[in-house]
Amino acid sequence: MLFGEHLLVERKRNHLSAEALARECGISRSYITLIETGRRLPGKKIIPKLALVLQLKVNILINWYLEDIRQKMQ
């Protein structure tokens, strides 16, 4: 599963709209959409913010990030 797919699942599990997640993280809704659709990976400053809002450990999001990169390299 790619980072964006994980993000979408967790966002929905937390009953957040893309706009609400973006607002809580201090980024744009369009950036969330780019991440969820796999067109972008979040920057290193965004990962901790996403983890905090989604109530996840940062390590989990870093693992998603690395998994995404590995899949794209194959």
Automatic annotation (TrEMBL):
Cross-referenced SUPFAM superfamilies: lambda repressor-like DNA-binding domains
GO molecular function, one term: DNA binding
HTH cro/C1-type domain segment(s): 7-61
InterPro entries: Cro/C1-type_HTH, Lambda_DNA-bd_dom_sf
Name assigned to this protein: HTH cro/C1-type domain-containing protein
Annotated transmembrane regions: none
UniProt source species: Candidatus Collierbacteria bacterium RIFOXYB1_FULL_49_13
A family per Pfam: HTH_3
Domain of life: Bacteria
